[in-house]
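Issue: ligand-bound run for D-galacturonic acid - logging full I/O for the record.

Environment: standard queue, default settings, no custom constraints.

Inputs:
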Amino acid sequence: MSGGPRFKLDHGAEIPAIGLGTWQSKAGEVEAAVAYAIKEAGYRAIDCAWAYGNEKEVGEGIRASGVPRSDIFITSKLWGTWHSRVEECLDQTLANLGTDYLDLYLVHWPVPLNPKGNHPVFPTLSSGKRDVDHDWLLKDTWKQMEAVLKKGKVKSIGVSNFSESKLNEILPTAEIIPAVNQLEIHIYNPQHKLVAFNKSKGIVTQAYSPLGSTNSPLLADEIAVEIAKKHSLQPADVLLGYLIAKGIVVLPKSVTPARIASNFTGALAGAEKLDTLDIEKLDGLAANGKQKRFITPPWPVELGFEHWPPLPQ
Ligand SMILES: NC(=O)C1=CN([C@@H]2O[C@H](COP(=O)(O)OP(=O)(O)OC[C@H]3O[C@@H](n4cnc5c(N)ncnc54)[C@H](OP(=O)(O)O)[C@@H]3O)[C@@H](O)[C@H]2O)C=CC1
Ligand SMILES: O=C[C@H](O)[C@@H](O)[C@@H](O)[C@H](O)C(=O)O
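Outputs:
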């Protein structure tokens, strides 16, 4: 099976420490990227979402790899307009991907959106603000997540973009603890406290945008470059290896074959070569003036995160 190192989830399943991201991977590019990642570069995990609009092509890429479905860890995510209809959104995702189960299903954001609004993905009010369903409770979304798990349609369930306060909206009534919390985590937004909170609850942290997303300044960070030079690594290897060394799953996205391959081998090399001092230096960057988030959609509700921009007026 391989696919690199794996981390244990609380209920005993295992999750590959490296997965390929697919957000903003375009039609005409993503099938080849996914097939290459699995067949040539050694990936065994793919991170998808209903909202990315490219799940059909991702599924084609998985099949084109020739690697059996059972060897691949597929994650997808429930979008906000579906919080009150979890199984329906999941069924669309399963049909899109051409599979009858997911390895991991996540609540994409802790923000239920109006299912009868003016747009199926991003409903808005006349003010232009996103149309949030303020009457729907996250604990009821979670009940439905538990139901699809019990039905066998998904092997693990988790959340994404949940702060400690949002986790506390579901934990008291949860029968099943989220296996994973997928968050924006990288050297400029390490969220040390939230990662520790996840750990205290047995929740594995996954890092999205681990390279700093599109046009990232992280790859040129002085300290990351210095550590890369010291170990004959690329800066991307340092950014990814740093997270894996801390027990955090990384989800680098690329549609460029050379980067898909080097992110996989480089992440492993980085995790092996970085020493305690390197990790300490990288851990301290955000607190020393480099704190920055790259993914801050204009949700008109408090998410409870540190370092989140003011809500839209
Ligand atoms: N749960 C959530 O809300 C979110 C989840 N995610 C998930 O996490 C994944 C990763 O996050 P994402 O925001 O895409 O950002 P990443 O940090 O993975 O960065 C992706 C960008 O970096 C480029 N890149 C990739 N590898 C290298 C490299 N070795 N050297 C230089 N540039 C490189 C890619 O370009 P190119 O493709 O052209 O090679 C792309 O522009 C997403 O694809 C998605 O699956 C992301 C955001 C939010
Ligand atoms: O997973 C990727 C991100 O969460 C992305 O789906 C959102 O940031 C979305 O573009 C939004 O504007 O809300």
